[in-house]
Amino acid sequence: MLIPARMSEAEEQRWVTFMLDKLAAQENKRVLGDTELSERAARLSELYFDGRARPTSVRWVTNQNTRWGSCTPAEGSIRLSHRLQGMPEYVVDYVLVHELAHLLVPGHGADFWRLLEAYPRTERARGYLEGVVAADRLPHLPAARGE
Q1: Domain CATH code at residue 86
Q2: Whether the predicted pLDDT of 143 surpasses 60
Q3: 60 beta partners
Q4: pLDDT per residue as tens digits for the range 127-138
Q5: Is residue 147 a part of any domain in this protein?
Q6: Tens-place pLDDT, residues 2-36
Q7: Which pTM was predicted?
Q8: How far apart are CA 28 and CA 146, in angstroms?
Q9: What is the pLDDT of residues 44-94, one digit of tens each?
Q10: Do residues 41 and 100 lie in contact, with contact meaning Cβ atoms separated by under 8 Å?
Q11: What is the DSSP string of 7-23?
Q12: CB proximity list for 45: less than 8 A, separation 6 or greater
């Protein structure tokens, strides 16, 4: 792994952690179908919300490039961005839990965030997604020769 010399030790550690997570995600490339995604959402609802969050549909979509997921509480529908496919399971689970919580609390107020406290990897998953966004914003340098 090549790392710019200008990176601080803390930045280097964050980058290495991010890249290791990314490699783990690539190794776990099995993509869930919509049916499996719905079943997973049902399990997560049971586990974290006592089954109270009941989506009518959960599916992957390819038209969400600025959001990881979305929910329409009035319809009970949840959509996850295809960009999540191949990411670590705990990240996909976080986005599902986030969207399931919107079925119970529509906004992002204090009650909503209290619901998300039930998912133990919320902060880690949010950090991972922030890292993905930050990495996407970095200038893409050509690969070094011999790679």
Answers
A1: 3.30.2010.10
A2: no
A3: 80
A4: 999 999 988 888
A5: no
A6: 777 887 888 888 888 787 777 666 654 556 788 99
A7: 0.74
A8: 27
A9: 999 999 999 999 999 999 998 889 999 999 999 999 999 999 899 999 999
A10: yes
A11: --HHHHHHHHHHHHHHH
A12: 51, 52, 53, 54, 55, 100
Give all strands (DSSP E) within the chain, no chain letters. Answer: 57-61, 69-72, 77-81
Q: Which two tokens stand for residue 37?
A: 């995604």
Q: Which tokens hold the place of 83?
A: 């960009």
Instruction: Report the C-alpha gap between 69 and 103 in whole angstroms.
Output: 13
In a domain, 66, yes or no: yes
User: Rounded to an integer, what is the distance from CA 127 to the centroid of its chain?
Assistant: 10
Domain encompassing residue 132:
15-137
- The CA-to-CA distance between both ends of the chain, in Å, stands at 10
- Is residue 10 in a domain? no
Any domain includes 94: yes
Q: Which residue has the tokens 């719905």?
A: 38
Indicate the residue type of 22.
K
How many domains, in total, are found in the chain?
Answer: 1
Q: Which two tokens stand for residue 138?
A: 């970095």
Distance of alpha carbon 12 from alpha carbon 7, whole angstroms? 6
Nearest one of 78, 128, 127 to 98, comparing CA atoms: 78
Question: What pLDDT score was predicted for residue 30?
Answer: 56
